[in-house]
Write a structure and sequence with these properties.
Tscrpt_reg_TrmB_N, about 60% helix, WH-like_DNA-bd_sf, WH_DNA-bd_sf, Arc Repressor Mutant, subunit A, mainly alpha, two-stranded antiparallel ribbon, two-stranded antiparallel sheet
Length: about 200
């Protein structure tokens, strides 16, 4: 049996477990459904899936073994919860954060044309970067124009992906706030005028 990757102290185990979910659309969709339903049973997951109950059961078992899901009940039917994934990968000068938001966005790529197109153009790493911009965008700390300039993409493409990812962020990350800090914005404007 595989060790629970997220409970181990070695980051490589966590990276391999999360990589498994990133590379398998079916596992990413299952993780996203568990996250959305909070503590579903296999039966509840299978009723919302195109896969057979046996396949869903095997996938849940695999995700529990690698530590991405955890069983939260001892009695039948077992209930499962998605474990919070939060890891940072640094490659050279670039840093990428892998969170449930990325996994949910990947799970939606086959049903969301905008996310699918963005991944085709910029890859999973580009989507991870876009999520960081979307966090700042959702907090009113970033604009599509700034993202477009920094990522060297059209403003319309930046605005489109930021809006798509903002919806996912608001669903997945409870602590994210959409309240605008007027004082901070005024200070930023004053600072830019003074330059």
């Amino acid at each position: 049996m595989a060790k629970s990757a997220l409970s181990n102290s070695h980051p490589l185990d966590t990276m391999l477990a999360v990589s498994d979910v990133i590379q398998n659309d079916r596992l990413a969709r299952l993780y996203a459904r568990v996250l959305d339903l909070d503590t579903p049973t296999v039966e509840e997951l299978a009723s919302r899936s195109a896969s057979s109950k046996t396949t869903v059961y095997e996938d849940v078992k695999h995700l529990v073994e690698i530590g991405v899901l955890e069983r939260v009940t001892d009695s039948q039917p077992h209930r499962y919860r998605a474990r919070w994934v939060d890891m940072t990968i640094q490659t050279g000068k670039e840093t990428f954060q892998i969170t449930p938001t990325l996994l949910v966005a990947l799970a939606q790529h086959d049903s969301n044309d905008n996310i699918e197109l963005y991944i085709e153009r910029h890859g999973v790493s580009g989507l991870a970067t876009a999520i960081e911009y979307a966090r700042a965008y959702t907090k009113s700390e970033m604009t599509a124009r700034i993202m477009a300039r920094e990522q060297e993409i059209p403003v319309l493409e930046a605005e489109t992906i930021l809006q798509e990812l903002q919806e996912i962020l608001l669903d997945v990350e409870d602590e994210i706030s959409t309240e605008i800090d007027i004082e901070a914005l005024d200070a930023d404007v004053d600072e830019q005028i003074g330059e």
